[in-house]
Here is the input.
Amino acid sequence: MLSEQLQDAIVESGDRLGEQTLYIAPSRIVDVCRFLKDERSFVRLSSVTAVDWFPAEPRFEVVYHLHSLERNDRLRLKCRVSAENPEIDSVTGVWRGANWYEREVFDMFGIGFRGHPNLKRILMPEDWDGNPLRKDYPIHGYKYSYQSE
Amino acid sequence: MKALEEHVASMLAPEPAPAEPGKGRHMVLNMGPQHPSTHGVLRVLIELEGETVRKAAPDIGYLHTGIEKQFEAGTWLQGVVLTDRVDYLANLSNNLVYALAVEKLMQLEMPARVQWMRVMLAELQRIESHLVWLGTHALDIGAMSVFFYCFREREEILRIKEMFSGQRMMTSYIRPGGLALEPPRGWEKRVGKFIRDFPDKVDEYDDLLERNPVWLERTKGVGFISVEDMLDLGVTGPMLRAAGVKLDVRKNTPYSSYEKFDFEMAVRTENDVFARYRVRLQEMRESAKIVTQALEGMPEGPWQADAPKMLLPDREKMKTQMEALIYHFKLVTEGYRVPAGEAYQAIESPRGEIAYYVVSNGTSHPYRVHMRTPSFGNLQGLGPMIEGTLIADTIAAMGSMDFVLGDVDR
Here is the structure.
């Protein structure tokens, strides 16, 4: 799947239920994505999301779903991100469409994306506290969100 | 909202007088969140230079209800009702993709009748969704009567849905493991009557619009966005097919036995609002073909999978067999468990590629459900589509995307 010089970026790979998954070292994600888009015809980024494995460490998994129209193939990339420093490089430089998906992950999980052109909350109000999709964020309760009123 | 205020303030700050009067003076127009043609609560900040749109920034999140978080609190079955409320104009498509994703994790094969029934309902749903789009889009542009014709047929589909499930919109009819209820007596007659008449009705809409000079003027050559931009930004569905890209998940990776049906992928190459209209109209005709085929070749058999560990037992068995009673108790109090793992299932909803990424940790609650909704991806294309065009074309271009804000904000 990947070329020689990117082979070491793969931490782990798996194929289950007919879906291929590659675990990528977080520092190499942009290189891998650029290679997959340019050389392996994954022109579409279907989605970017994350999974919170609290209290395990590394806590987060950032999940990318790629789609190649030419070969009608789908691929899942995963990066493990730690809880102390939840940050990863943005892939907006590869697919512009990653913009809102990464903002959503930032909003919901509090994972930062280095090099993102407009990293701010997208679904929640801008002055909201906490990241709703984290497992330690309560599902019940109410928090008044408008400071000015 | 602070950044937004700063943005507006910076826009309103006095500028040095331009060398050429009227040139280079920008104004920010706030469209929505209560604008009727956003079909929901979408806010778009449009920066204008004269009548030309220079920059358009959609501001979303007004309809965010935390559906993905709610999934994690309920059981796998309780998740079905949440999927209805994501894209409320295509709820059966959302039911279907969730059911397929969960069944993929459980490695459960559906009986032929269930698969065909699902295809039939999903196609009726596609027709219904496109009818709402056509009616409201024509209304936006100023052709009011089309709306009444479209909603006349939509009403009949809603009644068919009510006949099947007891609900007109939030049906929750397609569930992991099969269907929610046995198909009602006489459904063939009802669906058959509707689908026999329907192709003529599509011709009727076409007659109303095809040669309507106002409609042509407002749709032809409007709303262009390049194919590269669309693929890059994650736009899918009729938008992409109206630009000549052959991407239809039903054809590319058939699910739920779509490969057994004979239908064409509607593709146009003009890549404007009119082409999107033609594509959707053609899709309605193709969907009618699929429903007819499903009706004629509907296989006999059970309407649920043989999976006693996840489906409620028969009422009669429950009263006579101890094992069925135990299953019933366990299913109602705890819910069924799904093997640990993850599945990504994509299907073609009326708006484009809808995909659910479902993660299970082996318990009776979903660990994580992410919805890759078509409207969210499509809306990213709004800026590039209307930037550089006239403000008057904004409504037509926006309408042609056919987004549902429940689908965007979840």
Strands of chain A lie at 10-16, 19-24, 44-52, 60-68, 73-81, 87-89, 112-114. Residues 145-149 of chain A have pLDDT under 50 and may be disordered.
